[in-house]
Amino acid sequence: MRSDLLPLSRYAVDRDGESRSHPDLLERLWADPATRVVIVHRGLVAVTDDGAALDLLGPADLAPLAAATDGVPPVPGAPLGPLGTAYLGRDTSAAYVLLVLSESEGDPRDFAGLPGDPGDAVVAGRTWASLREVGALLGDRDAGLAATAVALAAWHARHPRCPRCGEPTQPVEAGWARRCEADGSMHHPRTDPAVIVAVTDDDDRLLLAHAAHWPARRFSLVAGYVEPGESLEAAARREVAEECGLDVDRVVYQASQPWPFPASLMLGFRARVAGGDLRPDGVEITEAMQVSRADLAAKVTSGQVLLPMRASIARALIEEWFGERRPGD
Ligand SMILES: [Zn+2]
Predict the structure, then answer these.
(1) How far is ligand 1, taken at its centre, from the CA of residue 287, in Å?
(2) How far is the CA of 105 from the centre of ligand 1 (A)?
(3) How far, in Å, is the centroid of ligand 1 from the Cα of 168?
(4) 139: CA distance to ligand 1 center in Å?
(5) I want to staple 84 with a disulfide (CB 3.0 to 4.6 A). Which of 22, 39, 100, 218 is the partner?
(6) Which residue intervals of the chain bear CATH 3.90.79.20?
């Protein structure tokens, strides 16, 4: 399985990390009418009506916000207010900048963070979508831009203060780091590794599990976060044993995909049942089953099983085992 073909792993833009340290980079980009702006609002991205492309704006389109905030963008080192910005990279046609209109999740239409609600001019009339919904619909360039934009926005929102001393931090490096003014320490975006495992037995039946907090009938693969001091393979074995009671071996890496909800990197594995009895833990996992391909096709057709969304690596791993792209939808 190729990571670079997974919906949210695609990336067609040069991240151009070396430009991030130019102190006036964002000001120059905001002054350039050719700059394209990716907007994130409460965790959602602005997309075209069909969800197949990002709704990219130019700096001039954001004039209502500029008028209300004494100028978009807020620059690194300045108070962010309700807005945040970062440099996402460039390709042969444009440079791409992130603008975070609002950091918390919720309905984008109730934006009212600025006097006179100028954000409404930008928010209203746009289509806002979750990356989970449109990640598989977007093209390569936009999928990569959106995944990075959502991840960066979430990191800034969750890390406003210094983990050493508790003082507020300010964004630097064109939005790719935060610096504590009190002790000078630098802090970089976090990514939390999580393993997800396609477990099969000697009859090539696939292990599917239903998590307690999922909608009814949703089944997916066993997954969980890697603990400090643990290898990826050990995490995969532990999660399957803890959640479903099965011992596995032959843990083999397949592919990875960012899952920025808010900061996961999903690392996909296959593994083989070596012992134990199928026994959901009853807490995280309330139901589990081992299915043949025919079983799964029948359960999906009958509506007994809802598969993970197409943007997920879970879906890709299940379909790789199944041997077809669409065992129902
Ligand atoms: Zn500090």
Answers:
(1) 45
(2) 27
(3) 8
(4) 40
(5) 100
(6) 3-187
Fold of domain 3-187: Nucleoside Triphosphate Pyrophosphohydrolase (3.90.79)
Helix (H) or strand (E) holding 86: strand 84-90
Q: Count of CB atoms within 10 A of residue 326's CB?
A: 11
Structure tokens at 310: 């197409």
Q: If you measure from the C-alpha of residue 80 to the centroid of ligand 1, how many angstroms do you get, rounded to a whole number?
A: 18
What pTM does this model have? 0.90
Upstream peptide bond of 73 is cis (omega within 30 degrees of 0): yes
Give 271-286 pLDDT, tens digit per residue. 999 999 999 999 999 9
Residue ranges near ligand 1 (ion) with Cβ within 5 Å? 162, 164-165, 167, 180, 182-183
The CATH code belonging to domain 192-322 is 3.90.79.10
User: Where in the chain are all domains bearing CATH 3.90.79.10?
Assistant: 192-322
Q: Is 163 exposed, middle or buried (0-12, 13-18, 19+ CB in 10 A)?
A: exposed
DSSP lists the bridge partners of residue 37 as: 57, 97
Q: pLDDT tens digit string along 87-130? A: 999 999 999 999 887 765 443 333 444 444 556 667 777 899 99
